[in-house]
Specification:
Number of strands: 15
Number of domains: 2
Strand order of the largest sheet: 9-10-8-7-11-12
Strand content: 15-25%
Structural class: alpha/beta
Largest sheet: 6 strands, parallel
Number of helices: 14
């Protein structure tokens, strides 16, 4: 027991030191002009390209030890093109407008007071994520752009990759004359650092979990600091009876199989009963050719008897793999009812040529992102023009959808008077 307490104290002490360093760095970042933060990102992109052999070698060490599924292995894998995409993402974030140079609103009161709402950084962010090493680079870029410091705790399976990426980020900060402690990672993969981050009141202002259901639930249960959750991607593609068949085939194949291990992948196909007999067998054939497997309800199996039967819990499962749930529904209302019962308010899509139906579906959907005639895999900060993302927020407070630099700011008020006193 004494040893356990001593270890917990050690984790807390280390996190306290990191938190104080991050707070100092965040204070400095908030005072810098946007051009200085942009220069650091561009220099970090340059450092990442120069360090490509080291980063890929570190990733190879992680891949050698990885024992998970092919889809999760794809999330962990880095190659030259993905590394270049990471570096390009830093440059793209640098090119975005400065989120701290904004006056969000201003007005004058009858007594002459002039009030302005001004954007400002949140402060120190804590990011806990799994598998994908590029998440660390994206999160660090968005934090720096928005004037925040960040402490990154990646999954143990990506530890060496995370270290190599963090080295490149800090090299960019140092080259630009910015505080290196603006981006930090714990010194080991010990889970004690997760607990220490969740308890770091006064050191971390916002915790952002990005990973599976178990991780998010643990963070929500144990965190003593505010949480901006990245929930499961229980996403649906609904094919309406007025869908163009070839478009539906193309979109569904991309939404499910482009990268089945990402949170924007479609997990469930909803298809109208009016077109299911003719279109569903074609869709199943398309996806089978891409090595997708299926879990189908009774109405879908009546059309395609070879499909495995879905269990009730399958429609509540985020597969993050080449597995697709299928349900036949009777129109948009039934589709929305299914989504309400089983979705996570992450990303939804409707495919139809009927504009009136589409607009009604878009208006009634409560998801953070809803698309019409487009793949759910467009739910991504880069595709939204944010350069990168720190996650997809599905809660109802502060921010929703892809989290870019603008979403990692809060605000303060500046009030200018001419001698007013309150009666």
């Amino acid at each position: 027991m004494r040893r356990m307490i001593a270890e917990l104290d050690n984790f807390a002490a280390t996190m306290g030191t990191m938190g104080r360093q991050a707070r100092t760095a965040a204070t400095a970042l908030a005072k810098l002009p946007g051009t200085a933060r942009d220069e650091a990102l561009r220099k970090a992109a340059m450092a990442m390209r120069l360090a490509a052999p080291d980063i890929l070698a570190a990733n190879a060490r992680d891949m050698t030890k990885f024992k998970g599924s092919p889809a999760f292995g794809d999330r962990l894998l880095l190659n030259e093109s993905r590394l270049e995409a990471m570096a390009r993402g830093l440059d793209e974030v640098a090119d975005l407008p400065d989120p701290l140079s904004r006056t969000l609103a201003e007005w004058t009161r009858p007594n002459g007071l002039r009030i302005a709402r001004i954007a400002q950084p949140i402060g120190v962010l804590g990011m806990i994520y799994e598998s994908r090493p590029n998440v660390g680079a994206d999160a660090a870029a968005i934090a720096i752009k928005s004037g925040n410091a960040i402490i990154l705790r990646g999954g143990s399976e990506s530890f060496h990759s995370a270290q190599a990426i963090q080295n490149a980020m800090t090299a960019g900060l140092k080259a630009a004359g910015l505080p290196e402690n603006a981006v930090q990672i714990p010194p080991s993969t010990d889970r004690g650092f997760v607990a220490a981050m969740l308890a770091a009141v006064g050191h971390i202002d916002l915790i952002i979990p990005r990973g599976g259901k178990a991780l998010v639930e643990r963070v929500q249960l144990e965190a003593r600091v505010p949480v901006l959750s990245h929930a499961q991607g229980l996403n649906h593609t609904y094919i309406h009876e007025a869908a163009a068949p070839e478009m539906a085939r193309r979109i569904l194949a991309n939404a499910k199989m482009r990268r089945p291990g990402v949170c924007g992948a479609t997990e469930t196909l909803l298809i109208d009963a009016a077109i299911a007999p003719s279109l569903l067998p074609v869709l199943v054939k398309d996806l089978s050719a891409l090595n997708c497997s299926f879990k189908a309800d009774e109405r879908a199996r009546a059309i395609c008897p070879e499909l495995p039967a879905a269990r009730a819990e399958d429609f509540d499962t985020e597969w993050l793999d080449a597995v697709l749930n299928i349900a036949v529904v009777d129109g948009p209302n039934a589709a929305l009812t299914h989504v309400m019962m089983h979705g996570s308010e992450h990303t939804e899509a409707i495919i139809t040529q009927d504009e009136q139906v589409a607009e009604a579906y878009l208006a009634r959907s409560t998801a953070a992102v809803t698309l019409w005639n487009a793949s759910t895999q467009f739910c991504d900060g880069g595709e939204f023009g944010f350069g990168a993302e720190i996650g997809i927020a599905t809660g109802h407070i502060h921010a929703r959808g892809p989290i870019g630099p603008e979403q990692l700011t809060t605000f303060r008020y500046v009030v200018r008077g001419t001698g007013q006193v309150r009666p």
